[in-house]
Design brief:
alpha/beta, Rossmann fold, five-stranded parallel beta sheet, three-stranded antiparallel beta sheet, 19% strand, globular
Length: 237
């Protein structure tokens, strides 16, 4: 997880932005499988010195535990289905509430994924109080999404995801820690198709739920170009 940098500040366009001067908020990243929402969320957290909370990463770590809930998570991921909301609340909301209650803004991806989870999130935020929400939606075609996912890799050591593009396609070692890069076990055509169908059925309904709060981003260009659009629109809202 990405925590506040030592000096608690970052530079943008020549102006110094102090993260403790930003309004306390949660920035949610949405998008189809393979849209790059996790990558963009991490990059934004690093740029502004905020706390990154990735629901997918937390669930994958939790699934390795020896418990009935962890077994349920493993089975849901294997089938390409959403993890039951009550389990997500247990592993995600505790850290979210702890971080926001300290006055630290959060950037997150992978939650909520349906209306029930969005409503549960609203309850937590009302409990904390005075937390604004920004919602970033990264749009990507199904063809592009499948190509990216089936070719992306994960570091066996640090668990970082290395997106597939012209610069990374031949990498065999993690650029961060040097660990071996492997294909993710939950990335297969069958599982991906199921995940896409779930996204179409449930997650896209969130665009209606959040309505005018949504900041729409074109996910087709290169990572750096997408990030420039994300930053530009985030600071202008």
């Amino acid at each position: 997880m990405i925590r506040l940098d030592k000096e608690n500040k970052t530079a943008y366009n020549g102006n110094m932005i102090m993260s403790n001067q930003l309004p306390k908020q949660i920035i949610l990243f949405f998008g189809s499988p393979g849209s790059g929402k996790g990558t963009q969320a991490r990059m934004l957290a690093e740029k502004f010195g905020l706390f990154y909370l990735g629901c997918g990463d937390m669930l994958r770590d939790f699934s390795k535990e020896n418990s009935d809930n962890a077994k349920t998570v493993r089975e849901s991921q294997k089938r390409g289905e959403l993890v039951p909301t009550e389990i997500v609340e247990k592993v995600f909301f505790q850290k979210l509430e702890e971080t926001l209650s300290k006055g630290i803004s959060v950037i997150s991806d992978g939650f909520p994924r349906n209306i029930a989870q969005a409503e549960a999130l609203d309850k937590v935020l009302r409990k904390i109080g005075k937390i604004s929400i920004k919602v970033v939606l990264i749009n990507l075609s199904k063809e592009s999404a499948f190509n990216r996912i089936l070719n992306r890799k994960t570091c066996a050591r640090c668990k970082a995801t290395v997106p597939f593009n012209s610069k990374t396609k031949d990498l065999k070692r993690c650029p961060d820690c040097g660990g071996e890069l492997i294909l993710r076990s939950d990335d297969s055509k069958k599982t991906l198709q199921k995940r896409w169908e779930t996204y179409e059925k449930e997650t896209k309904l969130l665009t209606e739920y959040y309505g005018k709060q949504i900041i729409r981003i074109d996910g087709e260009p290169d990572i750096e170009d997408v990030f420039q659009e994300v930053v530009s629109k985030i600071i202008s809202v």
